[in-house]
Amino acid sequence: MRRAAISAAAAAALPILTRLAPETAHTLALAGLDWLRPLWPRREFSASLAVRCAGLEFAHPLGLAAGFDKNADHLDALGALGFSHVEIGTVTPRPQPGNPKPRMFRLRESQALVNRMGFNNKGADHVAARLERSAYRGVRGVSIGKNFDTPIENAAGDYLHCFRRLYEHADYFAINVSSPNTARLRELQAREGLERILAPLAEEGAVLARRRGRRVPVFVKVAPDLDEAQLETLAAQLPALSVDGVIATNTSNRLERFASALPPGAGGGLSGRPLHALSLAVIRRLRALLPAGFPIVGVGGIFGADDAVETLAAGANLIQVYTGFAYRGDALIDEILAALERRGGAA
Known about the structure:
- The protein is globular.
- The chain has a single domain, classed as Alpha-Beta Barrel (TIM Barrel), CATH 3.20.20.
- The chain starts with a helix and ends with a helix.
- The chain is α/β, with parallel strands linked by helices.
- Helix 7 (228-240) packs across helix 8 (276-289).
- It is built from eleven helices and 13 strands.
- The relative contact order is 0.14.
- Strand 8 (172-176), helix 6 (191-212) and strand 9 form a beta-alpha-beta unit.
- The strands form three sheets. An eight-stranded parallel β-barrel has the order 3-4-7-8-9-10-12-13, surrounded by four helices. A three-stranded antiparallel β-sheet has the order 5-6-11, with no helix packed on it.
């Protein structure tokens, strides 16, 4: 009963939040979740929903994508909602403010967002401290990237810095080489760029695994805008570079059809319902190209149970939400988990 009352109060707040500027609404929503967290009853999950992926145990397939809590400042509150995993970040070595505001735009009719945040975050040291103090016992992913002013040729050093600094606090790393909002970042998805990033991480990971007594899996997050040749190259390269899984997908830079609904010059990455078909196509193709059992995390345009089931059926082992959660709140979590229970789990 208490959970239903809290959920109803949160649902009542959503229409108000959606009338505010998106970034303001986001900040206020997180503050509200922090306030409600002590009142939120503990969620229990059916054992049938459990998933083992990349050597990690997930209570169920549904997690929160990177970008919602960039600094692990709200991890305990978000975890209390019932996500099996929460991905923090994207984190850079040094704090940075990100791109000038406004930098997030709501497309209500399309149930979408366009953002050009630019990896705004408080830096690896802050995130390490927050993760160390967190009581969340779900799976904790950390998305890492490069500072905006680090030359692309030196990007590997930024990823390596975050990897070392956060290794003891992360359950897995997401290597973000696909955001459209950091200049030239997507060049790192190409064969040579990806090898420059991942080879040093594999070497350092082997050293840290021996030193710490545990190995932290590495996932690569890819764009939904890759063509067939790029997907084929990626699918061949990832297992060879000791990558443990792929997150498909990041936001899309295909904004042509939304130009009239956006302010002049408001570029960035598209998320939400229009992304779902693009992400599904990438997931299906990667599942066909990758070795059997290679983990895929499906993210993009999941707004309801049907979207979640479709993403899992396309070949994803786990799923993540972001924009759907921003629009619908914890009702989305309840709907998806109920559907998965009826379905008999993630399989």
